[in-house]
# Entry
Amino acid sequence: MGNKKKIGGKGLLLESGLFWDVASKDEQGQAEKTAEEYKKFLDKARTEKQTIQRVKELAEKESFVVVDLDKKLPKDKNKLIFVNRGKSAILVDLGKEGLGAGGNFLIAHVDSPRMDLKVRPLYEDGEIAYFKPNYYGGIKKYHWPVTPLAMQGTVVLKDGQEIEIDIGLKDDEPIFLISDLLPHLDSERNDKPLGKAIDAEELNIIVGTKPVADKKVKDRVKSAVLEWLNKNYKIGEEELFTADIRFVPAQKPRDVGFDRGLVASYGQDDRVCVFTALKGFFEARNSRASILYLVDKEETGSVGATGAESMFLENVIDYLIKELGEMISIYNFYRKSKAVSADVTGAYDPDYKQAYDPNNVARLGHGVVIEKYLGYRGKSYTMEAEPFFIREIINLFHKNKVVWQTGHLGKADAGGGGTIAGYLSNRNMEVVDMGVALLNMHAPCELASKADIYSAYKGYKVFLEN
Ligand code: MN
Ligand code: MN
# Structure
């Protein structure tokens, strides 16, 4: 058969349709259902630790067993979960072929931009008690004043016991707030460039305004806050120093628009990929080993024991090879493996056309985004997927009717971004980036299309099954 196709004929153009035009009615219904599940997940996964905890609970319901690297592998168990410091996790479904055949990896990150605390956070100024935060990840500072915040985290007490702090999510609980200057007095700041209008040191979280009764005490409001913390949680300033406390937006995940087509929520970068990868992972009928690797610290450079650069993955693969008596080396296991790096990208925003290259940016509702490469300017720090691998994925998506589109972050000189794909690619694995396009990524409230959430889940599942 010769190629009889005309220029511009079907098959020559790279076309992507709106999911709502091309998906079956049944799948459109499934997209709505998946979004409901997703919102419930997000509501209980506001920090990296809560996300791992929620994943662990869901995995246990799917009969995964928690494995301790210091103990023997439980006998005859195919579905395993390894947890590192409560902040990263590796889920393994051993499949039927053994590790000698390599595996299919999905990797996503559980951390999102937020307000952490400085080492001595509590102070009083103008008879108001504040926590002084240190922002975590890439934020736009003007987003955070007057955004209702919840305090979420864990504290280790003097006896070594870890307790949870969870304030601000229930309707009858207090929230926390960073104040902003009234417009009447803001003329000087109004003339500053957006990025310089707010200094990080001006982002302070109001935590109390009532004093202790004793008028001789210095910093009476701060003292009252300390008394409250001690009474309710048995903690003082030493515990605040050692704790993992995060201030995150307190709003619940909600639908957006008359048609409820979008989900608005904090933390969708990258928990939309955590959720969809997890759902695909649970449902996939795979013959090769499947590995879902959930990492922390992506937003701050992937450094540390729970980040993508950690040796935790080597700990787990090495353990499995030994416990299962496999003959393959860890290096060859990597070489024979394939990975999808599941992370979000920016969706085209008609309000900010100038930032995007309209032919190359992903669009809301056009399905899961395959990103051939990311990086900065002249492809700096770029992990680029190999042509054969992208072809393999696209063929699978055509065959299984996964709605997909191409994507690329923005104009070359506008900035750029990276994902954790490179850390697996450096291990000589075939890797491609694939995820959901968001509007206002990294804002306290991000938007994702229900069409894309569903398509990501389906895409990840199809990848694992092949
Ligand atoms: Mn991300
Ligand atoms: Mn991010």
